Amino acid sequence: xxxxxxxxxxxxxxxxxxxxxxxxxxxxxxxxxxxxxxxxxxxxxxxxxxxxxxxxxxxxxxxxxxxxxxxxxxxxxxxxxxxxxxxxxxxxxxxxxxxxxxxxxxxxxxxxxxxxxxxxxxxxxxxxxxxxxxxxxxxxxxxxxxxxxxxxxxxxxxxxxxxxxxxxxxxxxxxxxxxxxxxxxxxxxxxxxxxxxxxxxxxxxxxxxxxxxxxxxxxxxxxxxxxxxxxxxxxxxxxxxxxxxxxxxxxxxxxxxxxxxxxxxxxxxxxxxxxxxxxxxxxxxxxxxxxxxxxxxxxxxxxxxxxxxxxxxxxxxxxxxxxxxxxxxxxxxxxxxxxxxxxxxxxxxxxxxxxxxxxxxxxxxxxxxxxxxxxxxxxxxxxxxxxxxxxxxxxxxxxxxxxxxxxxxxxxxxxxxxxxxxxxxxxxxxxxxxxxxxxxxxxxxxxxxxxxxxxxxxxxxxxxxxxxxxxxxxxxxxxxxxxxxxxxxxxxxxxxxxxxxxxxxxxxxxxxxxxxxxxxxxxxxxxxxxxxxxxxxxxxxxxxxxxxxxxxxxxxxxxxxxxxxxxxxxxxxxxxxxxxxxxxxxxxxxxxxxxxxxxxxxxx
Length: 604
Ligand code: AGP
Hints:
By secondary structure, the chain is of the alpha/beta class. The chain folds into three domains: about 5-245, Glutamine Phosphoribosylpyrophosphate, subunit 1, domain 1, CATH 3.60.20; about 245-445, Rossmann fold; about 450-590, Glucose-6-phosphate isomerase like protein, domain 1 (Rossmann fold), CATH 3.40.50.10490. The protein is about 35% helix and about 20% strand. It is built from 19 helices and 25 strands. An eight-stranded antiparallel β-sheet has the order 3-2-4-1-10-9-11-15, with helices on one face. It has a seven-stranded antiparallel β-sheet with strand order 5-6-7-8-12-13-14. Helix 4 crosses helix 5, helix 7 (about 260-270) runs antiparallel to helix 15 (about 430-445) and helix 17 packs parallel to helix 19 (about 570-585). It is globular. The termini are close together. The mean pLDDT is about 95. Bound molecules: 2-deoxy-2-amino glucitol-6-phosphate (AGP). 2-deoxy-2-amino glucitol-6-phosphate binds near residues 301, 348 and 398.
């Protein structure tokens, strides 16, 4: 989704803004823009459709100024174009604004206040900058007053950075539901959607709460709530280094992040082990889950897929029923809840708007909740009662890999701890520290065999229009994730199916050469999935079987090292991630930045 950066008090703001925008590229965007001004009154507004490199090519050699804002846009209202790219300016060009989010009542605002204005583009954002201008001109308000009044009128999600050319020593910012941080420096300050954008400038950040308005000068900041009351808030140090966000010798972040997975498993063991080397989570979480009669897992995309694996583990170890829901459906179509529900929000970014709107409702209903996220301090983490971290390090490729496996590992730890507390025999008997170490080793084996997956991608996926992953039980859940990985970056139309369901309709799509990839890790259902693979092969499918040692057959194309039956997803997903990676490379697409997608989906 859109990314915002801003700098005040630094000599070369354009350079810092461009570097910051480049670090936000991973969020997904289709156009970008930058505005720089300063005391010399000369200003620069440059916008471009496409990539940051196209924006860079349009920038003048030298840009003087001490204050600037920049933006990457992921189009919601108005096509991606230079005109619709941010920053947006008021009719008289005095006010300059960037925005991340969606203004829901922009049509009404336009009709009520802005009939005299000629709008330049088609975005909802432009309404906001014109409205600020309108209040300054017609009601003689100060810029801050006009901004506050505007914030009270608009509805929706936003993170804004506003510059008034007549006050070239200040940036006004505000947020509601969309992420925005202030970074503190020595005689300079920065703003950014994500700390990683400005980590080269500072490690010290201040959070902004929804509906606050912040005035940012080079040497100070002032936070006010919606009514104008001053708010004091301590800064914190971001636990992030430049190294964490660089891909080093890797050609793509996705490959690095696939390779990171064994280390993440080991990090999780460490992070969740006590002095006796036993896995543990906070007692408050244990008590809340023990007091509940049903667990609801709410998530989107890959995180939702991890939730399905989590359901299996939680139900088997805790005997508590678990439901898995898509956040975008749950919020507006809530099922009848159990008497004592407990909610788990799974979100790599912790910023996903669909999940957040559910959490807001859950909080209103005062039900206990836990966010499992990779982003400490993220909105979902702050707003849920409890948080467990994924400790996966920044995940920058749009296609989620290490966050998926980290989510499953954390859910396994939760299942084990709660199961033990309930005296469940399965939970008592599993040595999860050992089993997760075995998973890390198995992942390493697969990662060391990349050339095999590269070859299979060529043999099975080259030139294909579509592909199917099939499996049963946990293998079905992994099939859904494997198919999402493949489709989102290679644009092959891929679907994951419950193997037994294929013959109830989808088998009609099987033609000569259609790739069908079977995942088989569970001895109890292996023969059934093999029969289903046989059925499609008879109809011309090109089948590739990924099986686990112990249930393999000599003809299977890839045999996975054996791990505990509860943890097979952590291993079987790795070759699927690699197949997606290589299929995409072979098609010549950008692995890390697939078209139309955003890393952190901050609009509903
Ligand atoms: C998967 O590769 C995608 N990046 C996407 O499905 C993602 O998992 C989804 O948007 C949810 O994001 P979250 O985990 O940050 O909430």
